[in-house]
Amino acid sequence: MGRYTGPxxxxxxxxxxxxxxxxxxxxxxxxxxxxxxxxxxxxxxARPGKRSDYGVQLREKQKLKKIYGMLEKQFRLFFERxxxxxxxxxxxxxxxxxxxxxxxxxxxxxxxxxxQARQLVSHGHILVNGRKINIPSYLxxxxxxxxxxxxxxxxTLVKDALKEFGRSGVMPWLSLDPDExxxxxxxxxxxxxxxxxxxxxxQMIIEHYSK
Length: 211
Fold this sequence. Notes:
Low-confidence stretches: none
Number of helices: 8
């Protein structure tokens, strides 16, 4: 199955959670979730049925997978790699997801959404330690420098996205020089530091894949 190309707001309505998939639009009054639109295909007057344990676990997995813009096969590989690592599987999973290059580009405010960041990486606009990397799932290492290629620094898309740095900065495991359009991955984040994912319950994702 290929990557989802339908209406992105429909995904948030399905999960009944704002997943921040469209960048600035998600913070505007145009957001479907702020306008209280019901889940697609549902009668808004119908009484919600009780979900099974499997259904609850599946929804948690789907939410996290969609936030990071991944397909099932790739997400499961990340989970299995995290399960083999030393430490707590849930924390390992979040640390691995945050190391993805497209996510780091988004976190460094070079793009207003992860999908936009993925496109920047795929089109060769991003450098890691001065070398062009066009693989969105590339895992950034501690102390790696991530920057916008010199001939891409004039892009309006990047300049507009960087305005967010002045409003909210970057996550504590990153550093950014906005003038030079380069940043550094300082450390793998702990689960408690990733505050913008809301109430994702990673234990349910572990239980889902453990069956």
